[in-house]
Write a structure and sequence with these properties.
The complex is a heterodimer of chains A (465) and B (707).
Chain A (H helix, E strand, L loop, with lengths): L1 H16 L13 E5 L3 E3 L6 E8 L7 E10 L7 E4 L6 E6 L5 E8 L10 E9 L4 E2 L5 E5 L7 E4 L10 E6 L4 E6 L5 E4 L6 E3 L6 E4 L10 H4 L42 E4 L17 E9 L2 E7 L7 E6 L6 E5 L4 E3 L10 E12 L2 E13 L6 E6 L30 E2 L8 E2 L3 E6 L5 E10 L5 E10 L1
Parallel strand pairs in A: 1-9, 2-10
Antiparallel strand pairs in A: 1-3, 3-7, 4-6, 4-8, 5-7, 8-10, 11-30, 12-13, 12-23, 14-15, 14-21, 16-17, 17-18, 18-19, 19-20, 21-22, 23-24, 25-28, 26-27, 28-29, 29-30
Chain B lengths: L1 H14 L19 E2 L7 E2 L7 E5 H6 L5 H5 L5 E5 L6 E5 L7 E5 L2 E2 L1 E2 L2 E2 L13 E8 L3 H4 L6 E7 L7 E10 L12 E11 L4 E12 L25 E13 L3 E16 L18 E21 L5 E21 L4 E23 L7 E16 L11 E16 L5 E12 L5 E11 L5 E11 L3 H5 L1 E3 L4 E3 L7 E15 L5 E24 L2 E24 L2 E15 L10 E14 L4 E10 L2 E8 L5 E8 L2 E12 L5 E8 L6 E3 L14 E3 L5 E8 L1 E3 L1
Parallel strand pairs in B: 6-11, 26-29
Antiparallel strand pairs in B: 1-2, 3-10, 4-5, 6-7, 8-9, 10-11, 12-13, 12-39, 12-40, 13-14, 14-15, 15-16, 16-17, 17-18, 18-19, 19-20, 20-21, 21-22, 22-23, 23-24, 24-27, 25-26, 27-28, 28-29, 29-30, 30-31, 31-32, 32-35, 33-34, 35-36, 36-39, 37-38
Membrane topology (chain B): Multi-pass membrane protein
Subcellular location (chain B): Cell outer membrane
Pfam families (chain B): Plug (PF07715)
Chain lengths: 465, 707
């Protein structure tokens, strides 16, 4: 009986005390403050710039970063000042509890004499916060003359989940230009040939009609054609510009000097930002257009499908730009791209070609990156299994791999999602890009989501080779 | 192997208490004179039943140390268990038809679950600790059990009496998951306590509590706090923890019996995303790894009041009232891995069912007559809720009321001991669907040579589910919609069973059963292309599903040996008007066998269970080398489940029972398949996950009885 009770007690003890809790409390991470970028340069016109210090995490308490500097041919008070002041040889930049960054201002007071190097090098000396560390970008080189950035980090502001913006990024100048995706409809090529591109960032499509009189076309004439002229359906590949970016493969044929060769086109204006072709109001509608030439200019005729008259505008090529852009909704030219040698990459919605179960599609892509091949920018992907990002040097560049296809980054920097998986960054690849000035950069993507997991917050780091 | 050492150590300590006493299992051929309930006017012997009812006995369950229904059913012929490592759920498939077509009942009434009432059941959520036996009837049983009883009915009958005044039964069960075992974070740990008391010779009460901690399969994965983005975060098989409390009060009077049953069930399933967003900050040379995780908590309560008896020896009644609710809540959050910080925490109801239910059956109107009939009703008022993120409902929460009001009647004509025939019909009224009907004709004939012949023709409708009715997944590249105008699917089945017992001079007892079955489901709901440009899909009643089946099952008992041997061969044909199809019958073979040997002097039972699932075929659309879509015959490889256990009783009155065994001795995990199709973004999977590999268990059960 004793044994029985003992055993029974043992069993009960198991029943009652079998709770598990093996969670450890995690680790406390060090607080790191560092220069956002390792270099900064001034053009002759720039007078002052903010220098950003970023933190590894939200600052737990107030504190101070102490920064020292050394100069080459520059004198504090004569050639530059800082705010907070660095007159004493050090700058004390405050850290505010709860913030993720702080800044100080660098004021350029004078331009260097041409041919003279003039620069200031800042160095992080101390952080007063407990459990902090100085690492990462501990120095910042400020050049008084324009020079290609040695690298840094960028976060193109595509605008969150709907990715409403196209963002043009210039790596060497560390700048970005943000434009709403639907700010334009047609781009008129400024190069040699007379070509018109569709705004594929809102998924436009077009089809040639067999007529040349734009006013004679009615909705009834194109009703049978309309269901086919859309992105995302079988056979849609023939109604879009070739996503390779080859200007000779636009869906709208080369504009001829002979007017009678220039057909009327049915144009599907695509999909509203955040919308869908499958829902009412998602479509941006339809136009009929015809493009002619007038000397070195384009003449655009456009109208709603059932209109018996049309609008006509003259669009000129723009020196130094890839395209002149036009918006139907404003009826005017739109300012979209920076000058063609002022951008390298465009973060945007875009299309790519896809084969599925025997059908070809122009398929829609978010988080797409177009490289500016029209300005000679080329790029290629490197697998981490061949070289790590850190170890990759200019000696490892394979010139032959540099691709003139504007999709060489495209959507290849991320994994496609699936039924139970969100798309994610491919951490095993990075890219080499050659810009228009012949600078080589290596580029590695570090984020496509924000901390809360919302899409549309890409980040990358890059470094001059 | 280190984990195993723990288990073995534990086992050794436990055996220190061992004493050799008599045995408990009475393994006489167990389905000779069993009493069955499923489909009967009154509980009666299996031999008299007009339906062919297969029984899984408590002894079978004990020998397999089955804690829930998923532990047991994979040894049953014509039934396949489909586990999902990514949801932690297990679904039943019977005659190739999934859980939507199989009705799972507890004490004759359907049991609620996250996604349905009686169907779509997650088998792992059905605890078997208070079970008397499990009854399985194949074929459509729409008249007796209503909607969705198309492929068959699985009826779990719970214990409602005890031979002892007091019975206190604690047990613990420790299991490895594959080769993983640890005290807390690995393996499976079950603790249970059951207390029952005979209040008087008429009143009986029982309460039990079980905790089932399934720590998940780690495999190559590294768990929740792994911060690298190499696909290794999380678990291969989701961990979950279940708490189950049940209480029963029963009264056993002369003319009336009554029981009230209460059940509480709680389950927590944790899904840790394998994707880690590293959030590297190259400026500071630090990273900030974050993952998005989900924790699902299901809560079920079930009240069941049943009264049955007769009015002064005349009309018998059997009436149940039940309130059941199952709610699944989701907690989604982002998890900052190094600091273990949860943020962006959102708590919300994920999906739920709330049901008021009653079923009543009245019979024996013609006392002592060969002719009798039964009248019945079945009512249920279901509030169903599915949150926007539980499916593709276009960002809307689906909150719907479904009222179903069925009446049914059947007549039984039993002119003698030999022959009985039973026609029946049910009419389904509902606030949502057109009025449906189910019909049935069952008959039995007992030949001179003890051959029992049964033939059952039955029908049952299957109601569309929320996905089929209310899906709304529309974006730039997709257009997939539910269809509120769907009709119920129509299932019809014909089954013929011939069963004969043989007793040989040397004491060998044999019982053989040959069954032929045919099930036809028409108006099958399928997602079809309703517009090719732009491509749009919608659910429609369009397809057909037909399956035939022949099975031969044998049970035997000889001296201390007993066992079963069964084989089943089936064909499935699908007419897919929704797309290209090939309606050839695709054949599949299943084979099951079990064997038990008792050593009475040792109080020991050795048993082993084996089930072979032959290759399964399915027509799938694939691309040929030219990129054209072609229909090919895909194949899922054959696999077998093999379990073995030893059960031994110790101490006086068999107070201590120890069961030690192994599941999945053949170490089945993934089975290669070409029988599934890929999606738009991915190729077809090349294998299907069916198990987590060979695992071992030990169960210690203690019976403390007072009289």
């Amino acid at each position: 009986m004793k044994k029985t009770i003992l055993l029974c007690g043992l069993l009960l003890a198991f029943v009652l005390f079998s709770c598990s809790s093996d969670d450890d409390g995690g680790t406390t991470q060090q607080f790191v403050a560092a220069f956002e970028n390792p270099s900064m340069s001034f053009t002759a016109d720039d007078a002052s710039k903010e220098v950003k210090l970023v933190f590894s995490k939200t600052a737990p308490e107030d504190g101070t970063v102490t920064i020292t500097y050394t100069t080459v041919n520059a004198e504090y008070g004569t050639h530059f000042t800082t705010d907070p002041s660095g007159e004493e040889g050090t700058i004390e930049v405050p850290i505010t509890a709860g913030s993720n960054q702080s800044t100080f201002t660098f004021n350029k007071l004078a331009n260097p004499i041409e041919g003279t190097e003039m620069s200031v090098s800042f160095k992080l000396e101390a952080i007063t916060n407990p459990n902090s560390a100085i690492q990462g970008n501990t120095t910042l080189a400020v050049s008084f003359t324009e020079s290609a950035a040695v690298g840094g980090v960028m976060a193109p502001e595509v605008g969150g989940p709907d990715q409403p913006n196209q963002v043009y990024v210039d790596l060497s100048a560390q700048t970005q230009t943000v434009v709403k995706r639907d700010a334009w409809d047609l781009g008129f090529y400024s190069g040699e040939s007379f070509r018109v591109v569709l705004n594929e960032s809102v998924y436009m499509a077009a089809a040639p009609l067999e007529v040349t009189d734009i006013d004679a076309v009615t909705e009834a004439d194109v009703a049978a054609l309309q269901p086919n002229v859309a992105v995302g359906i079988p056979g849609s590949n023939v109604y879009v510009d070739n996503p390779s970016g080859d200007i000779q493969e636009t869906v709208i044929a080369e504009v001829s000097e002979t007017d009678t060769d220039n057909k009327v086109y049915l144009v599907n204006l695509g999909i509203n930002i955040g919308g869908s072709i499958h829902v009412p109001g998602g479509s941006r509608g339809w136009k009929k257009i015809r493009v002619l030439r007038q000397g070195n200019d384009y003449v655009l005729q456009y109208a709603d499908l059932n209109a018996t008259t049309h609008e006509e505008v003259v669009v000129s090529k723009a020196e130094g730009y890839n395209f002149t852009f036009f918006s139907f909704s404003s009826g005017e030219q739109a300012s979209v791209e920076p000058m063609k040698n002022k951008w390298d990459l465009n973060f945007t919605h875009y299309i790519d070609l896809l084969s599925f179960q025997g059908d070809d599609y122009a398929y829609t892509y978010q988080d797409f990156i177009v490289s500016n091949t029209k300005a000679g920018i080329t790029a290629y992907q490197v697998a981490v299994s061949d070289f790590t990002y850190e170890d990759f040097t200019s000696e490892n560049i394979v010139e032959a791999n540099l691709s003139a296809d504007q999709r060489s980054i495209g959507s290849s920097w991320r994994n496609a999602g699936g039924p139970n998986a969100q798309p994610s960054i491919k951490e095993d690849v990075f890219y080499v890009l050659k810009d228009a000035d012949g600078n080589y950069y290596k580029i590695r993507f570090t984020a496509m989501y924000n901390e809360s997991g919302e899409r549309g917050y890409p980040k990358f780091e890059y470094s001059l080779l | 192997m280190k984990q195993l050492t723990n288990l073995i150590l534990f086992l050794t300590i436990s055996f220190g208490y061992a004493q050799e006493v008599n045995m408990i299992d009475s393994l006489a051929i167990n389905n000779l004179e069993e009493v069955v309930i499923t489909g009967q006017y009154n509980a009666q012997s299996i031999k008299k039943s007009v339906y062919e009812v297969s029984v899984i006995s408590k002894a079978d369950i004990d020998r397999q140390a089955g804690n829930n229904l998923a532990d047991i059913l994979n040894q049953t012929l014509n039934i396949t268990i489909l586990p999902s490592a990514s949801t932690g759920k297990s679904q039943v498939r019977m005659f190739g038809l999934d859980g939507q077509y199989v009705k799972i009942l507890v004490d004759n009434i359907p049991l609620v679950n996250d996604e349905g009432f009686g169907n779509n059941t997650d088998l792992t959520q059905i605890n078997l600790d208070d079970v008397e036996q499990i009854e399985i009837v194949e074929g459509a049983m729409g008249v007796q059990y209503g909607t969705n009883a198309v492929a068959g009915v699985i009826n779990i009958i719970t214990k409602k009496s005890s031979r002892h005044k007091w019975k206190i039964t604690p047990y613990i069960q420790e299991e490895t998951i594959g080769n993983e075992y640890g005290w807390f974070d690995k393996g499976r740990h079950i603790q249970s306590l059951s207390i029952s008391h005979d209040l008087s010779n008429k009143w009986y009460a029982n309460a039990m509590f079980t905790r089932n901690d399934f720590a998940g399969l780690w495999g190559d994965k590294e768990g929740q706090n792994y911060a690298q983005n190499d696909g290794k975060r999380g678990y291969e098989w989701l961990p979950k923890i279940q708490y189950n409390g049940k209480a029963l009060l029963s009264y056993n009077g002369e003319h009336a019996k009554l029981f009230y049953k209460f059940e509480y069930f709680n389950e927590k399933v944790s899904r840790y995303d394998s994707v880690v967003r590293s959030n590297e900050n190259p400026s500071t040379g630090t990273n900030n790894p974050i993952s998005s995780d989900e924790i699902f908590t299901s809560n079920r309560i079930m009240h069941h009041l049943n009264v049955n008896g007769n009015f002064n020896g005349g009309v018998t009644y059997d009436v149940s009232f039940s309130f059941q609710q199952q709610k699944r809540n989701a907690e989604t959050y982002n998890y900052r891995i190094p600091t273990r910080e949860k943020f962006d925490v959102q708590d919300f109801e994920y999906e739920s069912r709330k049901i008021y239910y009653s079923k009543g059956m009245f019979s024996n109107f013609m006392a002592a007559n060969a002719f009798d009939f039964q009248l019945g009703y079945e009512l249920n008022a279901t509030n169903g809720y599915a949150s926007a993120i539980s499916g593709d409902f276009g960002g809307e929460n689906i909150d719907r009321y479904l009222g179903a009001y069925d009446v049914f009647a059947s007549a039984e004509y039993i002119p003698g001991n030999r022959f009985s025939i039973r026609p029946g019909a049910r009419v389904f009224f509902s606030n949502k669907f057109d009025t449906q009907t189910a019909l049935e004709l069952s008959s039995k004939y007992l030949f001179d040579n003890n051959l029992e012949l049964r033939a059952v023709v039955g029908t049952a409708p299957r109601m569309p589910d929320f996905t089929e009715l209310y899906s709304y997944f529309v974006d730039t590249n997709h257009d997939i919609r539910g269809n509120e105008n769907l009709k119920p699917e129509q299932g019809t089945s014909i089954f013929v069973h011939a069963k004969k017992p043989f007793v040989f001079n040397n004491g060998l007892m044999l019982k053989s059963k040959l069954s032929l079955g045919y099930i036809n489901v028409k108006d099958r709901i399928e997602l079809i292309i309703v517009n090719s440009s732009p491509l749009a899909y919608q659910y429609n009643n369009i397809d057909k599903y037909r399956t035939w089946n022949i099975s031969f099952a044998n049970g035997f008992a000889y001296q201390n040996w007993s066992g079963n041997l069964g084989v089943s061969y089936s064909g499935v044909s699908k007419v897919l008007d929704s797309r290209d199809y090939n309606d050839d019958y695709l054949n599949a073979l299943q084979l099951n066998a079990n064997l038990a040997y008792i050593i009475p002097d040792w109080g020991t039972t050795f048993s082993t269970y084996f089930k072979h699932n032959g290759p399964e075929y399915q027509f799938v659309q694939q691309q040929d080398t030219d990129g054209n879509a072609v229909l090919v015959r895909g194949k899922q490889d054959a696999y077998s489940w093999w379990d073995a256990s030893v059960r031994k009783s110790f101490l006086e009155d068999n107070k201590l029972q120890i069961t030690v065994g192994a599941r999945n001795l053949l170490n089945i995990t993934r089975v290669n398949t070409t029988a599934t199709e890929g999606g738009a973004h991915s190729g077809p999977p090349s294998s299907v996950l069916l198990g987590y590999g060979r695992s071992y268990f030990i169960k210690l059960l203690y019976n403390l009885n007072f009289n």
